[in-house]
Here is the input.
Amino acid sequence: MRNPKLYAAMKQVFGETPRIVNEGEPCRLVNVYAEYSFIPRTQELPALCTPGGEQYAVSCPFCGDMRQRLYISHMWDTEFVQNNCRYHCSERLMHCFNENCTSDPEYRHKLINSLREAMGSITEIDESALAEDSVVMQNELANQCLFPAETQLVNAPTTPKEVVNYLQERGFDPGQLARMWSVGWLPRYGKFSYPLLVVPVLQNGEFWFWQGRLVPINGKVDGPLEKNLDGKEYPKYYFPHGVKKAWALYNIDRACTYHTVFIVEGVTDVWAIGGEAVARFGKSLSGAQVQLLADKCYAKHIIIVPDGDDPQALAAAQEDAMRLEIQSVFASVKIAELPEGQDPGDLIKIHGKEVSTWLKSQAHSLSQARTIPTTFGNQGSL
Here is the structure.
């Protein structure tokens, strides 16, 4: 935890245990230029200079929020020193994502005073904490595993009919998957005795790892998957041991060249939308993926596309949208809700090549998103 004193003060003021968001991540210093001064002085930094990083979330008593949507940065009202110049971080590093209550001057003043009284004094943060680099060395991430030498492209003449039927039934053209995404297949691999799709994951122009997708035994979309020795079906997706999927976004190198970037769960969702989509390999963004988007997609429009067949997907998308808005580096952050029971991969059958256009028409801001009740904590009071 980067600011335990603020965390404890929030717990005291709001009467609940704050939720830690982006735990351990430093903020990003933006437009904070090196200052040299022979006379010690303090310079005020606006909130936009220290976006992102670890946040503490509580329920907002002003608007009756019960879902911990009031976020306060670990850099709130703190100071750090560089080159004999002391920088004071803004007391506005707080935001209520429920009703934007912190824009109310009277409420904000009351909240600031309550927190300062609880903390006793301004928190000092060591300059070294800001210098921490969350980016792992490139040579540690590239070539995390070997690419299977037996892999053949899915448009090869030897591709089993089960593989072709499965892809076509999902609305994908094997030829396009091979040409644009280099998707291949293996007749068997390790513990698997049936064909396995092989999806290479590249980032920064280098191969990082590959993801496998089990093909149903009968080649049907809803067909049975291979079973283990206990008679249970294997998970449909497979990652080689030791890969760092949380540090990667599938197709980020291509997507960051577009004005709009879609964020989806899996690789097949990316295939359905096209080159402007990235997959996070899971239901929510990791801290490293948030930082990657901030670095690669500066000033881009971001649209998060939650699966309509997962009841918890929209709530996860709203959380991700808040985390991205806190970065303050994107042109916009929106959510595109799908019809119930559908995921982005289903849209290719309905909209064909116009999937991305249709999704843009469905995108709306976080404040307009359908409310999903959650139970992050009880309402506190000042």
Notes: Residues 166 and 219 are 5 Å apart (CA to CA). Residues 127-137, 371-382 have pLDDT under 50 and may be disordered. The first strand starts at residue 19 and ends at 21. The radius of gyration is 24 Å.
